[in-house]
Amino acid sequence: MNISDSAPKIFSYQFIVEPFHVDFTGHVNLSHICDYMLYAAESHAEILGCGLEELLTHNLSWFLTRAVIEIDKYPKAYEKGKVETWVEQTNRLFSIRNIDFFDEDNKRFGGARLMWALVDLTTHTPADLSTLEGLSQYSFPERKSAVAKPAKVPDISAAASQATPQKLYDVAYSDIDINQHFNSVKYIEKIVDMFSLDDYRTSQIERLEINYAAEAKFGATLALRKEVTQNPECWAVSMRDNTSAETICRARVSWKKRND
Amino acid sequence: MNISDSAPKIFSYQFIVEPFHVDFTGHVNLSHICDYMLYAAESHAEILGCGLEELLTHNLSWFLTRAVIEIDKYPKAYEKGKVETWVEQTNRLFSIRNIDFFDEDNKRFGGARLMWALVDLTTHTPADLSTLEGLSQYSFPERKSAVAKPAKVPDISAAASQATPQKLYDVAYSDIDINQHFNSVKYIEKIVDMFSLDDYRTSQIERLEINYAAEAKFGATLALRKEVTQNPECWAVSMRDNTSAETICRARVSWKKRND
Cβ–Cβ contacts within 10 Å for residue A89, how many? Predict the structure, then answer.
């Protein structure tokens, strides 16, 4: 599989905040910011010649393994902005893609770092990223990200794992993407939904780290649990299959007071 | 409140099907088609001078009471299309807005008819639409819709109403819109999620009719039940508050074999 040799190293995607994508405070829901970000990543991959459609013809797919998203200020309904994305580095196992978010005045309001693996859909095992010949030339480590590298998110405590889940969720048709996987953004939607309107009334999510561990299957019931960490503004979230107790994802959600 | 006297009678909105908005068959999820449609309706209302933001300053809001959506062929990822929308008629109680959907080749692939009421947010009662002075001049009954007028959707049978719900859903943060209401599209997402991947594998929703009855409150548990009608390809769906048994919405979902 050959990667284009004329694609730009930085891809830019413009968004507008649709009024149906904001929460009750009038600010865009974090899951929709993740939608913009993944759309930009996918569009850039498509231009590079390794988008989802192309990969599927080789029985391969991208799999998001870790993500960190930091948002300083959430845009409101009808506000425009852009996502800039570039590949920081690629090795045989992972590709690290960075994101910067800018508002209408070209002021950076957040960023993200995403760790992608390639999966062989026949064997359901990791595939060697060096099969995407020429992808490494798109690495652009010169542009630095202000966001820390995606790290391992620790699990909630054993005691919290045993407690009754705060939420149960049945994986439904709308959660399953073209890959027949639980849509990456849906994991994030379920995590932000672990918090109440009161939490969002005066505060906002400043940082969300997520480790994707396993696929949530159609029809499975997910058990979601949260636990405050030593930092009172930081919560650990666990999503497991309620029957097998297999971990689907782990997340850490940090909050700060709203600044508008 | 004065309505603009220079806005177009027909408003057009272009969409592109994002790869994250398609289902496992590669076709856009109906709830995202509804998103395009409501965005077009809201954008037209904004140009007319009676968009959500303007209404909120008068403590008023639009409330979707009934909708019928008919889709003949679902676009796939990356396909473009447009929504055309116009107001068919307005009286003191309701405004009927029509929608036509067109694909990239300008071929109509579906349509919708939406019945809106105006709600006074202070008293939570219907407001008189004639307060939107000048709105009636935008009625355009000359352009006919191929979709039947939104009618009353009958409830499921008493026996089916008593049965154990097929689904329970807890209303979460992401479901609550800027109006502090359950987002109109989320009702539709929960309805399409009443069906399994097997249902969608060979068939598609041809027609969805919905009567919005009451607001789903944050934290409430919704009980969803479905029942096949006399027509084996048509299902009645009921969404109730699981505690009070109050009807939140009723829907009728008609299916046909996939044509691509």
Answer: 13
